[in-house]
Design goal:
This protein is mainly β. The protein is built from one helix and five strands, in the order ββββαβ. The protein is globular and about 35 Å long.
Length: 69
């Protein structure tokens, strides 16, 4: 079950059902820009930035989580 789009807030991080973590950067006119954090081979993490419709963004989200440091 996906999260409610109205519960998504800028600056918060969310985990999807696959274990990926996303930090919401902006929400504007039904679109969300976010950074997706992925574990790197060296033990750290890397981030890629994307913009998608908010309704698509929430489809696989399960919960809010602490943001990676």
């Amino acid at each position: 079950m996906s999260m409610d789009p109205n519960s998504i807030l800028v600056g918060n991080c969310y985990r999807d059902r696959f274990g990926a973590v996303f930090e919401v950067k902006t929400i504007d006119k039904g679109y969300v820009t976010f950074a997706e954090y992925q574990k790197s081979d060296g033990g750290g993490s890397s981030a890629s930035k994307q913009t998608v419709p908010l309704t698509r963004f929430v489809q696989n989200l399960e919960s809010q989580v602490p943001c990676p440091q």
